[in-house]
Amino acid sequence: MFDELMLHGDMIYTKAGAGKNTVFIQMRLPWYRGLPVSCIERLEVTLDGTALGPDKARLIVGGVPLMQKELSERYEETWFNLDSKEVELTLDGPLAEGKHQVSALMRLRIPYFRTSPDPTQSSYTQYAVCDKIMRFSREDE
Amino acid sequence: MKKLPFNLGSTLYSFNIQYYTYQCTFEQLIEKCMELGPNQGIEVVAPMFDRGYPRLSQEFEHRFKSAQEKYGFIPTCYSGYSDPQRFTGRYANAEEEKEYIKLQIDSAVKLGFPIVRLPWIPEITGDLLKYAEKHKIHIATEVHAPLTIETADVLVNDLLKYDSEYMGIVPDCGIFCKAPSEVYFKRFREQGVEQKYVDKIVEMWNDKKNQYEIADTIKDMGGNELAQLMGIEADNYFGHSEPESMLPLMKYIRHVHGKFFYINDDGEESAVRIPEIVDVLIRGGFTGSISCEFEGHHWFSDQDPLEQIRRYQALVRRCAGVEID
Question: Which end of chain B offers a freer environment for a tag, N or C, measured as fewer CB atoms within 10 Å?
């Protein structure tokens, strides 16, 4: 749902104090209502065709970039459907200024369904995918 | 002038796209709904609007009450959830579900809603009912396709067992369909689902086959995932309940989801049996609220939900023999 809006805006940006190889993008929750952050089962970002590992694309919750395992424990933090969140991308080297192809995939567990008696076996999930040309600039540094 | 014996309103879920894409704020959605006429009812999907959900945030309480003061809408139904899968690797236990839902009942009470729509959880229904009775608020569970009133016997048995004015059901009118919607067909045809699969799905829908049977048959015929999805959606959106099935349960029906998919330029809806539904509600003495729920946006985003709801309300008035006001 709303897959094409998952990559929010078209800016890849840096922040003061972040590492030289660290950049950020903004994402939106691809669902019509807010969901606990624990419902994010998978978040993947691909930059110019190279997939970043799950530890290298981390959603920032409450100012802290979280790894997948940490996200899965945050059931009291909500990602509200109108809000964008930052994702911190850790790259192998500095990113060139200009246009880049960004792809994102998010798998969400929809928490209000009970699809199986065994909660570890099966759950109602949604995949959202989004591809976009985004622009990187260091001008904010 | 003859008046409708029940209230007409909207669930803001109908405006999903306009809200998500920042075309309209909460207040602007209310303002739109009030263009439909006086005394419009408003149903709110809580986690869509309140950042504090399942608790009530001060921000939303203020916004809601300010909007109510300004526009004078009638709060009809607070839509809540139990979110049992919010925990990773386990379901919420009964106690956790109860606490989570009680917070939402508290929110609904503070906002002045007479009804909270909640999932039906047999283990805690008795406790929740006591809580609802104490707060004088009605809790009700939606009956939505593929469930029908005829097959919701476990839920209906509980209704009869507790027999309380504070507990009921919300029939989603998508359960009362004569056929899948024209917009559903249009979308899947445009996406390339071949006619032989469409024909098979229609045949199996008419035979009241469930989504698994339909999807398996389509797969066996060589249909791809899209064709299988079309089969699944037939059962999930377009139900086989008889409008008459509401009659014996009318005392438990305070709120109805006026689900529809597309009202065409002639003012007709191809799927939902609206004239019969209105007839049954009137005969059954329904005095609650019909929350118009436009869901055509599931297949096409080009329809204006407000215009669609306007057409729907006009159709309901026509069916009720009431002059357009």
Answer: N
Q: How far apart are CA A18 and CA B186, in angstroms?
A: 50
How far apart (Å, rounded) are the C-alpha atoms in residues A138 and B158? 63
Gap between the Cα atoms of B274 and A55, Å rounded = 52
Q: How confident is the model at residue A116 (pLDDT cuts 50, 70, 90)?
A: low
Buried b (16+ CB within 10 A) or exposed e, B229-268: bbbbbbbebbbbbebebbeebbebbbbbbbbbbbbeeeee
Q: Which of helix, strand or coil describes residue B309?
A: helix
Interface of A with B (CB under 8 A): 2, 5, 32-36, 38-39, 72-73, 75, 78, 80-82, 109-114, 119-120, 123-124
Q: Name, in order, each residue with C-beta under 8 angstroms of A55's C-beta and a sequence gap of 6 or more.
A: A67, A68, A90
Distance, CA of A86 to CA of A27 (rounded, Å): 6
Cβ burial A55-70 (10 Å sphere, 16+ → b, else e): ebbbbebeeebbebee
When pLDDT is cut at 50, 70 and 90, the band that residue A119 belongs to is: low
Residue B180: its pLDDT value, please?
Answer: 97
- For B98-112, write each residue's pLDDT tens digit: 999 999 999 999 999
Report the residue from B20, B84, B89 with minimal CB separation from A111.
Answer: B84
Interface test with B, best of A82, A83, A84, A110 (most B CBs within 10 A): A82
Q: What distance separates the 2 farthest-apart alpha carbons in chain A?
A: 53
A89 is written with which tokens? 């991308």
**Burial class, B179, CB count within 10 angstroms (exposed 0-12 / middle 13-18 / buried 19+):** middle
* Digit-coded pLDDT (tens) for B247-295: 999 999 999 999 999 999 999 999 999 999 999 999 999 999 999 999 9
Amino acid sitting at position A78: T
Task: With CB atoms and an 8 Å threshold, state whether A39 touches B21.
Answer: no
How buried is residue B202: exposed, middle or buried, by Cβ count under 10 Å (0-12/13-18/19+)? middle
What DSSP letter does each residue of B157-203 carry, written as one string?
HHHHHH--TTEEEEEBGGGBBSS--HHHHHHHHHTT--HHHHHHHHH
Dihedrals φ, ψ of B107, to 5°?
-60, -45
- Cβ burial of B58 (10 Å; 0-12, 13-18, 19+) is exposed
CA distance A50 to chain B (A): 28
Distance, in Å, from the CA atom of B148 to the CA atom of B253, rounded to the nearest integer, reads: 15
First to last CA, chain B: 9
